[in-house]
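Late entry, evening session. Most of the bench is empty. Finally got around to the prediction I had been postponing all week. Sequence below, unchanged from the version circulated by S.P.
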Amino acid sequence: MLKPFGFYQKTRNIAIATAIFLSLLTNTGSAFAERVRIDDPEVEGYALDYCREWATNCGKPAADAYCQSKGYEESVHFSVVNNSPPTLVINSGQVCDMPGCNRIVSVVCRYPGHHGHHRHHDRNDEQWQ
């Protein structure tokens, strides 16, 4: 028995709608999974120092180095607490155990291949924006 043309049109429309829905669902899911937040990041058992090298390349360079050491592409956010020793300087391995040692207490890392808006916190900013 032959089926009417309308049956094929409906079947095709359902298949297209399903494909579009699954495509949107997949793309939306990846947007949620493109970043990971790490609280209290540590290096060799010490809190992550605010500087990548001793007293230089501070802030985003240190957060980026930490994220990259974990297989991520870069940091997109981080939060700092001032005067909170001991910390470890990620590139040199030096321990900072005196007043003035600032630690990164939270970092959001971006998975490779995901690009978006980049913000980071000032040295004195302890709140998420």
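Two things to note before I forget:
The radius of gyration is 23 Å.
The longest strand covers residues 74-81.
Will write this up properly tomorrow.
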